[in-house]
Please model this.
Amino acid sequence: MTIADWPEELRPRERLIRLGAAALSDAELLAVFLRVGVSGKSAVDLGRDMVGHFGSLNAMFAATLDDFSVLNGLGPAKFAQLQAVLELAKRAVTETMRTGVTLSAPENVRRYLQLLFTNQTHESFVVLFLDVRNRLIVAETLFRGTLTHTSVYPREVVKAALRHNAASVILSHNHPSGKSDPSPADCALTKALQQALALIDVRVLDHFIVAGPEVLSFAERGIL
Model:
């Protein structure tokens, strides 16, 4: 039975229109995105297969084309559509942050950074440069690769802060390993950057580590 044969009140698209997207399960939202299933499976069944195969939405978003195409019914076209949706979401959040939503609340930053680091399979160091009202000026990836006190150069962060005329910054990097606990090198790096930026009167508001669905705040842990 296809979704078209279901009672109207059970169809994902109609439920979304009537109740809002938040009322739908992950599989149902994916069904709306997919539009059609495959032989013997509805779009909802295929959505369930996707959730089960990848284990999480973050893992699905981070999948390569080859990984994505393993499931019957998925391929380059759906992969491209999903990446386009993800990029639009990133740009929409960035636009909101630039037009007045404060980044001083950790929960706002968590949501933003989770989108920002989606699809990142390598370690990256991203600095959010903020104005005097804690609005985002720009999020800039300054370093990639294994991050240590010696591979992230404080002078480069200082130069970028001056270039963007920032009043404060939020530091962030990801742990592709999936573990959000800060290493001694992470703590040493944070302290070095605090000291360097203090010389130009730029505050470090926080340092976040993004590890998939987990986002750790140095400030909340009391280590900033």
